[in-house]
Amino acid sequence: MVVGTTFGAHYARALAGPYSPVELVGVAGTGGQAGRHLAAELGVRYLAGTDEIESAGAGLAVVAVRSAIVGGQGDEICRDLLGRGIPVLQELPVHSADVVRSARAAQRSGAAFAVTGFYEHLEPVRRFIAAARALDAVSPVTGVELRTSIQVLHASLGVLSRILTAPPGPDFAVHPAAATAKSLVSTDWGGVAVDVLVRNGYDARTPDDDCQPLMGFVLGTPDGELSLAHVHGPTRWEPRLHEEAPGRLRHPEQRLSHLFGPDHWTGDTVFPGLWAEGIARAVGGFAEAVSAGRRPLGQRDLAALRHWEAVSARLGRPADVPSVPPKLINIHDLEVCS
């Protein structure tokens, strides 16, 4: 069962599709037409509210409703479902205090509870995390540069917490950047210097419309840099150039830039393809944990959320930045080198 029909529509369509590890039995909303149309499109039952979820035969629920920290009822819905013994996977952002409350409700009822930032389950991000861990084992990461927007800062830090296994330190500095509505956040994350450039502004009328940049990472090591420019793109490894003598490189045979993974997603293929696979992976992993009796919520999730809360409080209220539809740029117009 998917609760919520805004971002929840992505979950519902993915779980009704060919990649789904579970059977979607229904969609729950507030009674609006959008939710009813979504359920009709997918051929599943529509529930106006969550009172009848048990009768719909749901073995677990995905709650993609705004949480209390962004003015929604998602946390209350989660604890109500957990109190009835229904396992819940909740879409972030969620305040860490509410995560703890829901985890305690889950413990009392014996139902599983977990949160998801979504992006950590996308294949390009998983590829980057795996490459970063492998790199760190042979060439320790000494610094991180992260570019992101305030709307997905929580998810960006969640991805970073899967690479830097130590928790972030309690102290950090915030400085205004030269660009409009941007700030630089610098911290020591378990001995690794982390600099986060955050775009702290959006159009209040359409807050989810303009997440530019979404999230991009550069990991520095003594031997080179590993980067992910975008969550839908490839990982890049760039070894550090070193001259043993003038004009003679230490490793002259190595490629100076190496890409891992495809870079072919378009606006009309990413949702039913890459995103649907990521959602299936997130829900499938949660369903496996439920079946095995494991508790999938970890301290890493809480540590990243608490750091996000502290940073967000220091950044202050996001600036109101009017959003305009982007122009379509012909890639061939950029190939002008002569």
Task: Give keywords.
338 residues; alpha/beta; Rossmann fold; 2 domains; 8 helices; 18 strands; globular
Summarize the structure in words:
The chain has 338 residues and is of the alpha/beta class. The chain folds into 2 domains: 2-116, 3-Layer(aba) Sandwich (Rossmann fold), CATH 3.40.50.720; 120-265 and 308-319, Dihydrodipicolinate Reductase, domain 2, CATH 3.30.360.10. It has 8 helices and 18 strands. The protein has helices spanning 8-15, 33-42, 74-83, 96-109, 123-138, 153-161, 271-292, 299-315; strands at 2-3, 26-29, 45-48, 61-63, 88-91, 113-116, 143-149, 172-176, 182-189, 192-199, 201-202, 215-221, 224-228, 235-239, 243-245, 248-249, 258-260, 319-320. An 8-stranded mixed beta sheet has the order 8-9-10-7-12-13-14-17, with helices on one face. The chain has a 6-stranded parallel beta sheet with strand order 3-2-1-4-5-6, with helices on both faces. A hairpin with a 5-residue loop joins strand 8 and strand 9 (182-189). Helix 1 (8-15) packs across helix 7 (271-292) and helix 3 runs parallel beside helix 4 (96-109). The radius of gyration is 21 Å and the shape is globular. The model has no long low-confidence stretch (mean pLDDT 93). It comes from Streptomyces natalensis ATCC 27448. GO terms for molecular function: nucleotide binding. InterPro entries: Gfo/Idh/MocA-like_OxRdtase_N, NAD(P)-bd_dom_sf. This is Gfo/Idh/MocA-like oxidoreductase N-terminal domain-containing protein. Residues 2-115 form the Gfo/Idh/MocA-like oxidoreductase N-terminal domain.
